[in-house]
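Reading group handout, session on sequence-to-structure problems. Before we discuss, look at one worked example. The prompt was deliberately terse, the way you'd type it at a terminal:

> structure SalK

The input record follows.
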Amino acid sequence: MDATFARDMWKALEPLHAVTYFAEECRTANKDVGLKGFWMGYFGSRGAPLGRASAGTIQATFFGFHPARVRRAVPDAWEFASPESILVARSEAAARALRRTFPGIEDVAVDAAPLLQEVVMAADASGRPLFAANRDLPLPENPVEALWQATTSLREHRGDGHVALLTAEGLSGLEANVLACAMGIVPPERLRESRGWSPEEWDEASEALARRGLVAEAEATEAGRALKAHIEQRTDELAAAPYTVLADPRPLYESLVPASKALATEMPFPNPIGLPRLA
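And the output record:
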């Protein structure tokens, strides 16, 4: 499977998954189930497949967030809402957001959800805790909810692999953020503030990357760009493997593109995820 296809699929799948962070239905659902504030909603909703996970577990698997930002939300989140109730709320809310934003999503989901689930079940869960936790959730009977769950599982599969590659290259979560900004992928202020790092901590990480020759004057050096390109290429290669279960995955991708373009209206560009608009 061509690694380029995996990147195309990421661009198509991410807007479907990301309604859980940006859509009003999802933010309201987190509040209604009992979670307090955006960040408790974020960590609680995304972390719920892991059960009553500790702050350390969330910090390690989510990667890139300041420990204090995580600890302000977890484990307190589980006292306000059980992971089981959060899982129901996030699934139903995501489906509502998908239906509102792309009215034809029911027709897309009927055909696409089973194919995506085939890919999910073909994927290797080794070393991928967020993916494994999402894969093992009961698949909703509703096709739109099933579509969202499958996109979420594959999104976390890719993300888990990406985190493994970053750590293998000796990059901390903060340093990975700084390098992404030095590449011009995300404005530094947006990523620093969303991940909870202070200006002083950001500067310290920049200096650490500069000592490695990866960043100079807030811009990635040739070595920094080469390292980032290598990590992204390997991320695509690892993410591509499960799609070989489909004889021809391209029609699946093409069926998702119209919905993905419509759902991009729910996201800011640029965004902390680093997702570009689907061409």
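Points for discussion. First: The chain has one domain: 3-260. Second: The first helix runs from residue 3 to 22.
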